[in-house]
Specification:
This protein is mostly helical. The protein has helices at residues 31-43, 47-51, 53-90, 97-104, 108-115, 118-141, 148-164, 171-179, 185-210, 220-240, 246-261, 264-278, 290-296. It is 70% helix and 0% strand. It starts with 30 loop residues before the first helix and ends with a helix.
Length: 297
């Protein structure tokens, strides 16, 4: 280490000489000498040795911040998952900060810090449910070829989702009952998510017409209305009435819609798609590139 030359102003100088040339005595252990040594030792410390340590200390700040952010996101995801489970059984109105704190073993303030209010929590649950619905129903079904095979896949995945939710409930349907006459942000979020799903179904119907699988004069909105009506009936009979034949009746209802509007080319494509689905390991023409399938949809 390079020693710095001490500044003279730092050294404790002895007092001026007294009478007859007798000056102040400089004993090795005196306060005067201890002060001088202390200043000199401090002056020999290289300033670069101090400044080199600063970046290392500063570099830990972003890492700690990233870890804190990741932990916060994981905590929020865990809270949302618990909230989704509560809402499925108790409805969106059954959600509360206190009930969620009990389920997650967190404090009310901890839950409140992630959502701020009960209304924000309800909206977050609606969006989370919609994201899961899209992943399980929409993105799985659009791997099928355009036309009637894809439209059937969308409906069958929807039916499968309802069959899973028989014991828990569909937030779209229960939310419509809870907020049908209650304007506000939660109702707006529900309406927006359901309309997005209806738009996706309507687009699939129009694509089936463009492929020549449905009659050109077929009313897309009427087909959508009847398909949604089948889902509502299925949910009612399977969940409320516990009717054992509800799933089969929903399939028969879709077959009647297809018979009413499908063209010979559409029926042939539909039969081919069902044969391919029945044969395991047979890929769909559109399934090779999932991202491309999402763009084409």
């Amino acid at each position: 280490m390079k020693r710095l030359r001490p500044r003279m102003a730092w050294i404790f100088r002895p007092a001026p000489l007294k009478k007859q040339g007798e000056g102040l005595r400089r004993d090795p252990g005196s306060l005067q000498n201890r002060t001088t040594v202390r200043f000199i030792i401090w002056a020999t410390v290289s300033p670069t040795s101090v400044t080199r340590q600063k970046p290392a200390a500063a570099s830990t700040v972003p890492r700690r911040g990233a870890r804190s952010l990741q932990k916060g996101q994981q905590t929020r995801a865990a809270i949302l998952d618990a909230a989704l489970g509560l809402a499925s059984h108790m409805g969106l109105e059954g959600l509360s900060i206190g009930a969620l704190a009990d389920v997650t073993k967190m404090s009310k303030s901890g839950v409140f810090a992630h959502f701020g209010s009960r209304e924000e929590l309800q909206i977050a649950v609606v969006r989370e449910y919609h994201a899961k619905f899209e992943e399980e129903v929409f993105f799985t079904a659009i791997r099928e070829p355009r036309g009637l095979p894809r439209l059937r896949a969308l409906f069958e995945r929807w039916v499968h989702r309802v069959s899973i939710e028989v014991d828990s409930g569909c937030i779209y349907i229960s939310g419509a009952v809870e907020f049908d006459d209650r304007p506000g942000p939660v109702r707006d979020a529900l309406v927006s998510m359901v309309k997005d799903w209806h738009d996706a179904l309507r687009k699939a119907i129009l694509l089936a017409q463009a492929e020549g699988h449905l009659a050109p004069d077929a009313d897309a909105d009427q087909i959508l209305f009847e398909m949604h009506g089948l889902i509502l009936s299925l949910h009612h009979d399977a969940r409320f009435l516990r009717s054992p034949g509800a799933l089969a009746r929903a399939s028969v209802g879709l077959a009647r819609i297809v018979d009413s509007f499908a063209t010979p080319a559409g029926r042939a494509a539909d039969v081919l798609a069902r044969q391919r689905t029945a044969a395991p390991g047979t890929p769909s023409p559109d399934s090779a590139d999932a991202p491309a399938a999402r763009r084409r949809a």
